Amino acid sequence: MSSLATDPVATPAELFDLDGRVAIVTGASSGLGDRFTRVLAAAGATVVAAARRVDRLERLAGEVDRVEACGCDVARDDDLERLVAGALERHGHVDVLINNAGMGGASPAEEESREHFRRVVDVNLNAVFVLSQLAGRAMLEQGSGSIINIASMFGLVASAPVVHASYCASKGGVVNMTREMGAQWARRGVRVNAIAPGFFPSEMTDELIGDEASARWLRRNAPIGRPGEAHELDGALLFLASDASTYVTGQTLAIDGGWTAR
To answer: Which residue, 19, 155, 226, 250, shows the most beta carbons closer than 10 Å to its own?
Structure first.
């Protein structure tokens, strides 16, 4: 009889359980990062919520058990070093890292300043590498861990007619860096995957979703016919963070209402 038949079957609660694990979430002060923090904590994890707006983090920590606030600017290497070192000092291990912090800013490529392009790449790509390296070293030493990079569907396809050269470039880099780090660390117990959201409510998309003409364009072009709702990322997040995905690495999961399937 094959092992497929004889392996014990875990309950859904057991499969997605994060009890006893320590997670770091960047960009946790609003939008998707706030939601990710709440979801991981609800699954049993202790979550170090990191962002620049400490007042919002402290409010989040006051509302949700097992959430710790940590001020952090992901564009500063010393902040990232302090973030990981503090989590390790307090808890002894880091098991899950969610690289969620990011920035955008739309302008035609011929008009976008070099300074802005470099800033977007620094926040959206360089910081993801640095923090993944820092947390990844601890995970490699313990022989286990899951890193989840928040990419974008615009890391997989062009954003036109929205003009986002720097954003697309940075998120495309995140997608391929995810493949490479996932492949490098696969045999050492550390999985690296990405989620590529479509249009979801956030500070970055408020103007698009809130403008009626833009919202009509979105509804007309998205196969599902609407933007995503925050809870529709919960399953993908828990799948990649938990033991439900122990044979998955180097992958980017598009949660985009079918946008990239068109």
So the answer is: 155
